[in-house]
Amino acid sequence: MADNHDHAHSHRHNHLVEDMLATMSRNGWRITEQRKTLAKIFAEQDGYLSPKDVYDQMSAEYPSVSFDTVYRNLRMLSEMGVLEQFYFMEGGLKFKGSCLSHHHHHLICVNCEKTMTFDYCPMEQSLELPGNYKILNHRFEIYGVCDQCQNQS
Amino acid sequence: MADNHDHAHSHRHNHLVEDMLATMSRNGWRITEQRKTLAKIFAEQDGYLSPKDVYDQMSAEYPSVSFDTVYRNLRMLSEMGVLEQFYFMEGGLKFKGSCLSHHHHHLICVNCEKTMTFDYCPMEQSLELPGNYKILNHRFEIYGVCDQCQNQS
DNA sequence: CTCAATGCAAAATGTTTGCATAATG
DNA sequence: CATTATGCAAACATTTTGCATTGAG
């Protein structure tokens, strides 16, 4: 099972990694070993990762990596739009690879943080809003417990 | 204008202050001068306040107040449900008095953080969601620039 | 070979904790 | 008067910065 699962994924992963690296390159950033590793980590991961998580995974491949480099790169990648950042109330700031292709919202597992996307957007309704705000953006997330996490405890 | 505006508000404010103090009392917390001030600050304020904002306003009345007391009380009031906390991406953790009476969502001014509520809730739609998540809660916020802030620059 | 990226150390920020003192109920 | 809340100081966690060195283009 693990085998063709992983195999099916690896194509998508390589594609994502290349996308991320291409975006960095396009924005004038150099492709370093650490940034390749960073891209790979987020391509292989559906959920959110804290800077600490990323650091831990990075140091597995590059034992000498430093925390500030991780932070710097996470920040840059967020600014470029390659990563989405999100602040969990408990658990602080986390990052995940962002889908750049289309507007969508997230269904997030509060246990493992695995995230699924869905296309329904409440802003497509004709909302009656109070005040005369000039609307800039919005945020809609649904939290729950995913199938796996429901069955495993 | 300021006069009957303020006057109309003051009734609501007193009511809110009493509500908050009653909730603290009900939960077995003592009503201290600082907590009264804290309740008043949030009753008089529509928008979000950072711990620093709260500290500054508190020290206007109690110059000797300390930061950790502010934090402690903010945390307690949040746990009790008297305050809602919210993490602004830029600007960190902030608090506002919470409306305990009915479910609603927020329209938030990104400039002054003045917040209006509205009753439309996307969860009332029959959403088709991926996965088999057991849904726990959700979050829907709209960000914009309020009337005042649009006209003042 | 030039300039950007890294690692290191140290600082800045934001939040929490332990404990003696003060104040509430 | 018993017990909780406060202020102080110090600890802690997280994120940012300055600078010499390394490495990508």
From TrEMBL, chains A, B:
**What family does the Swiss-Prot or TrEMBL record give for this protein?**
Belongs to the Fur family.
Residue positions binding Fe cation: H103, E124, H138
Q: Binding residues for Zn(2+), per the UniProt record?
A: C109, C112, C146, C149
Organism, scientific name:
Paenibacillus phyllosphaerae
Tell me any Pfam family this protein matches.
FUR
Recorded protein name is Fur family zinc uptake transcriptional regulator
CDD domains membership: Fur_like
**Gene Ontology MF: a single term:** zinc ion binding
**Subcellular location field:** Cytoplasm
- Which BP terms does GO give this entry? negative regulation of DNA-templated transcription; regulation of secondary metabolite biosynthetic process
InterPro entries tied to this protein: FUR (IPR002481), Fur_C (IPR043135), WH-like_DNA-bd_sf (IPR036388), WH_DNA-bd_sf (IPR036390)
